[in-house]
Design goal:
Elements: E1 2-7, E2 10-13, E3 18-26, E4 34-39, E5 46-51, E6 58-60, E7 68-73, E8 78-83, E9 92-98, E10 110-111, E11 115-120
Parallel strand pairs: 2-11
Antiparallel strand pairs: 1-3, 3-8, 4-5, 4-9, 5-6, 7-8, 9-10, 9-11
């Protein structure tokens, strides 16, 4: 199995930046595609970004294109989400996921516990 632990969330003003980290353990990290999802209060868990095991294929949700960057360091078994130009509507719990392929949350096998990101106006 794979264990995922997110970190780096917090409170930031609109226009600011945060970098989230997801540390993996267990099975070989480099063999899994990785993704970030987020869930705001009262909303469904939505897709944010995806990166395949090689790091060579990356996809972003429309709402974060041009502002967020997903990357991975297989040697460190860590995936990152650099978030710039943050908006209040980015406020959510951000979850790291592994072992999927599509933008649907139902396609992903492993999940972290989430880290809270709050953007104030």
């Amino acid at each position: 199995q794979v264990q995922l632990v997110e970190s780096g969330g917090g409170l930031v003003q609109a226009g600011g930046s945060l970098r989230l980290s997801c540390a993996a353990s267990g099975r070989t990290f480099s063999s899994y595609a990785m993704a970030w999802f987020r869930q705001a209060p009262g909303k469904e868990r939505d897709f944010v970004a995806r990166i395949i095991w090689s790091g060579g294929s990356i996809y972003y949700g429309d709402s974060v294109k041009g502002r967020f960057t997903i990357s991975r360091d297989n040697a460190k078994k860590t995936v990152y989400l650099q978030m710039n130009s943050l908006k209040p509507e980015d406020t959510a719990v951000y979850y790291c996921a592994a072992g999927g392929w599509t933008t649907s949350r139902n396609d992903w096998v492993y999940w972290g516990q989430g880290t809270q990101v709050t953007v104030s106006s």
